[in-house]
Amino acid sequence: xxxxxxxxxxxxxxxxxxxxxxxxxxxxxxxxxxxxxxxxxxxxxxxxxxxxxxxxxxxxxxxxxxxxxxxxxxxxxxxxxxxxxxxxxxxxxxxxxxxxxxxxxxxxxxxxxxxxxxxxxxxxxxxxxxxxxxxxxxxxxxxxxxxxxxxxxxxxxxxxxxxxxxxxxxxxxxxxxxxxxxxxxxxxxxxxxxxxxxxxxxxxxxxxxxxxxxxxxxxxxxxxxxxxxxxxxxxxxxxxxxxxxxxxxxxxxxxxxxxxxxxxxxxxxxxxxxxxxxxxxxxxxxxxxxxxxxxxxxxxxxxxxxxxxxxxxxxxxxxxxxxxxxxx
Length: 328
Ligand code: GAL
Fold this sequence. Notes:
Blueprint: H1 2-20, H2 23-34, E1 36-42, H3 48-64, E2 72-78, H4 83-95, E3 100-103, H5 111-120, E4 125-128, H6 134-138, E5 143-147, H7 150-162, E6 176-182, H8 188-203, E7 208-215, H9 220-234, E8 240-243, H10 246-258, E9 268-270, H11 276-284, E10 290-292, H12 295-310, E11 318-320, E12 324-326
Parallel strand pairs: 1-2, 1-3, 3-4, 4-5, 5-11, 6-7, 6-8, 8-9
Antiparallel strand pairs: 10-12
The chain binds beta-D-galactopyranose (GAL).
């Protein structure tokens, strides 16, 4: 209805302007009138991986998807890691009459609140990166989730260690003694990576020993602090430091160097995301491995799903993009 009205308005203006002999102005007006308004909520801007993701999302909407004539007008807002703030942002987008929402929740448990508000206004929601429950998604036919299966990323981390010549047993005591630096544990990515990295080791027949496990909330400086605490406390007992993401692994790498340890010689270091600097570190041998979290594939899939539902298509509930193992 909204679209119909603006099309009607646009054509009335073309008619009027054409009467004045200004074709150029008419075309401009038409394009603006037709723009699809997209409201994007990111859990916080200060996150390495989500920064790459949101930049690609905006670029893809505004360049690639806008190339066929339908203009996408994208507004991206920073939730500052505060769910109350993000809920306000969602409500503001709804009041502004966006055509579709793309939401990276601060807390996955807020999905029902977001769905309720969007559903009442008949605005579709594409959730990204932080997965709502199946039940939440099923409560609204215009809601879907685009993400990756974090079990796969954890499994890949563990397999990289199991495939090392020494199978991750640097101190030669017959056991893989490890430190786990977790992301935000409310996020399934953190839960699954923690669980499945270790499961891959035990599935490969290795014995494991957890020395230390704490949350670093995806944050580089917290990763450094926690790795430093673990290295101070357990010293050469530590064989492997698993980090749920590369941001924290970058911090852990600084702590490893500061404690006089050497990756590949007396310790292993694993992350997830495949940030450019970490891919380089894997090549240089200062990081054992990482797992590509495909922000480009996920951004494109999220925008394609938004386009589909805006154009009246039916959404699937889940769209999953594969991870890729990176160990050389
Ligand atoms: C994960 C990613 C982390 C962090 C998190 C935010 O998928 O690996 O680096 O961005 O999402 O929810």
